[in-house]
Amino acid sequence: MFDKRLLELLDADRKYVVFMVICNLLSTVSNIVITFSICILVNQLLLGKTEVTDYAAPFILALAAAAVRFVLSLLNGRFGAKLGTNAKEMLRKKIYDKVARLGVRETDDLSLARLPRWQ
Length: 119
Fold this sequence. Notes:
Layout: H1 4-9, H2 14-47, H3 52-102
Helix pairs in contact: 2-3
């Protein structure tokens, strides 16, 4: 489940969350297709089918579904990385703004110069 407070902070980046959910749903469908194809192949083996054409369609279907799942996994990773980068940048900016606004005095442990400024 997504954290509601974090989602509120991600106004412009909610699209990446939606894209990730869609990729995960389509990956699940691809897994079901792969499992279905393997079941058909095993059924053909148990029935004693010897023709190559009996095995070609389920095999090609399983390969296509595996390729789709691979592409969806890549896209999901890219969306997640982009979302994480944007969230980290936004949180750093908010923390710096809050520290600057509160006027925390500098100590040996905390220096405002060491905090990154995000414009």
